[in-house]
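Bit of a strange request maybe. I'm writing a small parser for structure token strings and I need a real example to test against, not something I typed by hand. Could someone generate the tokens for this chain?
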Amino acid sequence: MIHSVKVHFAEQDINDLKEISATLERVLNHPDETQARRLMTLEDIVSGYSNVLISLADSHGKTVVSLPRCA
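Reply from user aminoacidic:
Good idea to test on real output. This should exercise your parser:
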């Protein structure tokens, strides 16, 4: 029984991550939006999940943004 519950939650986590990943790709690759607007959209997406952290880096490895932002 415990194994079944663990498998269920693992599968749910994988599905959530796939959905988040696809959404992030769509937002980041949306050519009609400014970078500021895309970042606001990302913040909105991440705020809906209590256990998701996102860090975006530029081509030099420098962190551009980390979400959620810490106060």
